[in-house]
Amino acid sequence: MAANTKTSRKVARYAVPVAVAGVAAATVAMVPAFANAGGPDLPKVTAQQLIEKIAASDVQQLSGTARLSTDLGLPKIASGLLGGGGMAGGSANPEDKVAQLATGTHTFRVAADGPDRQKLTFLDGKDEYSLVHNGDDVWGYDSKSNEVFHEKAPAEAGGGAGHERKTGDRLAASPQQFAEEVLKAAGATTDVSVGDTAQVAGRDAYQLVLKPKQSGSTVASVQIAVDAGNGVPLRVQVLSTEGGKPIVDAGFTKVDFAKPSADTFAFTPPKGAKVTDGSDAAGHGTKDDGFKALESLPGLGDLIGGANGKGDMKVLGEGWATIARIDSGTGKGLQGAENDKNAPKEAKQFLDSLGDKVSGTFGEGRVLSTRLVNALITDDGKVYVGAVTKDALVKAADANK
């Protein structure tokens, strides 16, 4: 996410979160497809051929339904504090809606016609939220509150290739974007192969499988189902080393590659709707509101940003095993919050629900855990965070205290 407030609120922010993109590095193993295991009988391809098929796909028109399920293993109290309260809020700001995708299962109607026209409609519950990009305009409409958000598409895109990247693929919020972000981070720390064939949304598909070469990652594999006919990614699943259901499962349930009708992307604010211009709403979204309970923990803001926002950060390792080490400069961790009698009960419950106390040659600290990203906060004010296991964080802290 861009640091500049104005830029960060542009259309590029409205994508379904691609949390695994930063850790999904890939190297192509020339491995033919495995046995079909009950899937469709398709000609064998290598991983290199399948990646080339994705890259060569020129599909820009589609419509259908997609589903995103995210299971980070957050307890209910953590989900509430982090703004995962569902799609029933009364704001038309796209940032607020995207923030709510961090937990649970969400269904969308998707339509796209090239880089200048896309529509995404959230179908959670009886109320709908629509996000429409049509030419120079981006609209968000929340039917529950009858509120409209309006913003101009980024002028710096100029309608060229950058314009397509910022508004076309991202606004569609479809599995293609997940797949592109994963493959973009290609490197030498991943084995890439072709797995079993599958059927997704009624389409025959190959599955591209990315697995970490390194130990210690929370990700067992990333599996990308690719349309056997046109090379469009139809589903992306992020599987956990702990087993169980996927951490992230984003895929089409129905898809049609015919050109959507032009009126699909037409939008006029309903009569009586409250319309908010994006430039006027900068800095006033509800995204930060969900963190108020966390901010009430003494010193937590300093731990995240460093003392006075000047913490020292160092990147340890590479690929799937990457860990960010942040020295807050405060010299203290969360023990102050744990012992503070004035801290809200909910804030302390949040710590207890996420964290295990650990120790090592680095000293003592607490690990805040999810199924994907873990963070070790030491009692001397250092933070180690990455998509790695608790043991990997402790090992890193011992080696880099």
Task: Write up what this structure looks like.
The chain is of the alpha+beta class and 401 residues long. The chain folds into 2 domains: 5-286, outer membrane lipoprotein receptor (LolB), chain A; 296-399, 2-Layer Sandwich (TATA-Binding Protein). 21% of the residues lie in helices and 32% in strands. The protein is built from 11 helices and 20 strands. It has helices at 5-8, 47-56, 76-81, 94-99, 161-172, 175-184, 292-295, 300-305, 335-339, 345-354, 390-399; strands spanning 27-28, 61-70, 104-113, 117-122, 129-134, 137-142, 147-152, 190-194, 198-200, 203-212, 219-227, 233-240, 248-256, 274-277, 312-316, 323-327, 355-360, 363-369, 374-378, 382-386. The strands form 2 sheets. Strands 1, 2, 3, 4, 5, 6, 7, 8, 9, 10, 11, 12, 13 and 14 form a 14-stranded mixed beta sheet that branches. A 6-stranded antiparallel beta sheet has the order 15-16-20-19-18-17. A hairpin with a 4-residue loop joins strand 6 and strand 7 (147-152). The two termini are 29 Å apart. 39% of the residues are buried.
